[in-house]
Amino acid sequence: MTLAVKAVGIRKSFGNHEVLKGLDLDVAYGEVLCILGPSGSGKSTFLRCINHLEIPNGGYVWVDGAIMGYELNRGALQELPVKRLRAQQSQLGMVFQHFNLFAHRTVLGNVTEGPMVVRGLSRAEAEARAMALLEQVGMAAKASSYPSQLSGGQKQRVAIARALAMEPRVMLFDEPTSALDPELVGEVLEVMRNLARGGTTMIVVTHEIGFAREVADRVVVMIDGEIRENGAPQQVLSNPGDARVRSFLSRVL
Ligand code: ADP
Ligand code: MG
């Protein structure tokens, strides 16, 4: 069966600082994977390598069986032209810590922009689909508001709807609740929990151990640019074999 995401031997350095030291990861369709790890361990860089926002110095990523950023040409790998790379990247929906909404667009405009500009949907069709997604994240009533008029939790729910509007095969979340006031975390996790229940394939970098324990099919712990644990939530969270993982978890649990 084709995997949603396969990463093999991913390495990334900035100058002489080796941030990712050869990471392997398989994610099946329908799977929810949570990535935990201390700040600076390379989690964001790994997500950015998966969607080719960063080009790995070594290793390759396949999304739905196609190698990211390259094509085979007479047996040799060649870099994809930018336009086709963008099309590949649009198979991965990305939700960031800091929302990154378009400030000068309404909530509805934020969700329709990608489908209209990249996919060529008509305004009517893009708006109909956007409203259904805003309904799904509980934001339909705010369709004509601007981002500055929303709470952080509301902004993040719009950001999730915006990513879903591109109909990605996989959703990537980079600490989606880390910038939120504590009382707003729950509403965003609830939307993510519903997505997971609906079968969305998700890779979630998070410090929300409760969410990982309850929602993840699998938990990965990264330390210092390496995957130190990769297994079922109960196993990894309750009984990690690795001493540095035990020490990290004892600080966040
Ligand atoms: P995490 O998301 O786990 O906190 P990051 O992937 O953001 O970790 O960062 C891992 C390391 O890589 C950090 O030491 C960070 O300073 C470094 N790093 C990340 N991006 C860059 C960059 N564009 N240039 C230089 N160093 C970077
Ligand atoms: Mg990060």
Automatic annotation (TrEMBL):
Q: Which Gene3D superfamilies match?
A: P-loop containing nucleotide triphosphate hydrolases (3.40.50.300)
CDD domains in alphabetical order:
ABC_HisP_GlnQ
Pfam families from the UniProt entry: ABC_tran
The Swiss-Prot or TrEMBL record annotates one GO molecular function as:
ATP binding
Which InterPro entries does the entry link to? AAA+_ATPase, ABC_ATPase_HisP-typ, ABC_transporter-like_ATP-bd, ABC_transporter-like_CS, MetN_ABC_transporter-like, P-loop_NTPase
Q: Give UniProt keywords alphabetically.
A: ATP-binding, Cell membrane, Membrane, Nucleotide-binding, Plasmid, Transport
Q: In what residue span(s) does the ABC transporter domain sit? A: 5-249
Give the chief site where it resides.
Answer: membrane
Localized where?
Answer: Cell membrane
Name of the protein: Amino acid ABC transporter ATP-binding protein
